[in-house]
Amino acid sequence: MNIITFFSQIDQIYLWDIIGTAVFGVSGVLIAMERRMDVFGMLILAFVTGVGGGTLRDVLIGYIPVFWMRDHIYIVMIIVSVVITLLFKNKMADQWGRWLLLFDAIGLGVFTIIGIEKALRYELSPTIAIILGTMTGSFGGVIRDILANKLPALFHKEIYATACIAGGTVYFLINSFMPHNLVIFITIVVVIAVRLLSLKYHWELPKF
Amino acid sequence: MNIITFFSQIDQIYLWDIIGTAVFGVSGVLIAMERRMDVFGMLILAFVTGVGGGTLRDVLIGYIPVFWMRDHIYIVMIIVSVVITLLFKNKMADQWGRWLLLFDAIGLGVFTIIGIEKALRYELSPTIAIILGTMTGSFGGVIRDILANKLPALFHKEIYATACIAGGTVYFLINSFMPHNLVIFITIVVVIAVRLLSLKYHWELPKF
Amino acid sequence: MNIITFFSQIDQIYLWDIIGTAVFGVSGVLIAMERRMDVFGMLILAFVTGVGGGTLRDVLIGYIPVFWMRDHIYIVMIIVSVVITLLFKNKMADQWGRWLLLFDAIGLGVFTIIGIEKALRYELSPTIAIILGTMTGSFGGVIRDILANKLPALFHKEIYATACIAGGTVYFLINSFMPHNLVIFITIVVVIAVRLLSLKYHWELPKF
């Protein structure tokens, strides 16, 4: 099976879900290196960043055993993210930096959708669904920062979770009258747009 | 419906549960401000402080989806706690400080009872029930401190969990021969009393 | 019932499981003392170190209420670990240091086996079983370090989780053709050997 048949066989959301997992994983490895952790520390930080948000979501709604115990692709992607980061660690910071931010934003959008749709399958309300979408997208990074003994970046540095909340809100505004595929597409685009624009124009949430 | 009919319609425990959630939330917002977090950080810290202990309890006993996914009042109270703290942030530290401590103590007592009664509904033993009551009352603050990258205050500063343990012990001492309403009332009073007296007289647990 | 009948009545794995819990608990109390926590902080740190890894495992696979709610011996052992550490705190660091390391290594091996076997009972794959075995053995220490506001030792200092992974891998290599008792014995010996040899010869995982 070549790579094109592989890609055409699987659902697009699923594809971006696993790419997002790997890109989130890379951000875990980079923090682990910054903290001078060993290879095992890198694996764990890649793991919690890549699957931590979804794991918390699954535990809170009762989808257990959690998702990465049911499909090995997630663990494979975590290992891939560690190997690739070690092989190309100089490129990661430099040339690839912008690509990583883009893929991270796409991953964020896809994770948000997955969280929302899973919540709806459990017949939870839109508010809870948006919370779970945001959690899926952004809590991997929070657990990563806690394990690395840092103040979570999410809480004071960037528009990140806000992008998930914006996307989730749009989802429920358009969900009743648009076809489902379009709703998903627009939601992901909103998350990506808010995230990338906030990076470009240095948007910040107010502090007091 | 005016506020008095509202209050008389709902169960007293439930009323103090949601007030306790908001007061716990306020303590999360205050720590978030201290750490210069943005508005989203405040929301998260209010959220974990207000519902974190009960969430951990629910996950450990298997009451999932967890409680705040089943009743929106908790999320409403978290948002209320952020708004009120931002509006009255000067008053919070000053004039309101003593009221907050009182409400926090009442919340602590009510949270303890809720944890104990939920454990008993799952046919867990008195020991486990006291542990779960204490967890419900005090672990929101622990998660708050971890997210704020602080050594949890619970572990070295104050008689807090000890008040829950004292109340829980009294609960099981009197439960077999007193009417249930009175057991609940006395337990809550014991928690509040131990908590407030420990603040007044600077009680501390021994260190070694 | 004297101690010999007690020991001969219970299963050897179970015996070492509860001894391991107490020894892990001791390491929690020692960190709590280092951080000048009070008696309650010691109890919590002993608790999370002793049962934290297994609790996380149980929550992720859905074995809830979690194990220590079903058998009080774990809570008893936690309390025992606090009392013993307080009584013999000078000896702990000195004469007992080597014994603690040995018991800790045995506990690590036993916890790994328990995690693996529980995963298999849930029909999870060998990869997931090794992950859960490693988690059972090593995440109590991670939660301990997070609560004590330290960078988890697991991620940068020692061969610890690696011993669990080595043992778990051996388990699945020999499981198909050896009797079950022997598989368990060899797995535990491998974990202990890797752990103790790594301490003796100062093995470390590579950093980058």
Automatic annotation (TrEMBL), chains A, B, C:
It is found in: Cell membrane. This is Trimeric intracellular cation channel family protein. It comes from the Bacteria. The chain crosses the membrane at residues 13-32, 39-66, 72-88, 100-116, 128-147, 159-177, 183-203. Belongs to the UPF0126 family. Its main location: membrane. The keyword RNA-binding does not apply. Keywords: Cell membrane, Membrane, Transmembrane, Transmembrane helix. It holds the Pfam family Gly_transporter. The keyword Magnesium does not apply. Residues 15-89, 102-174 form the Glycine transporter domain. It is a multi-pass membrane protein.
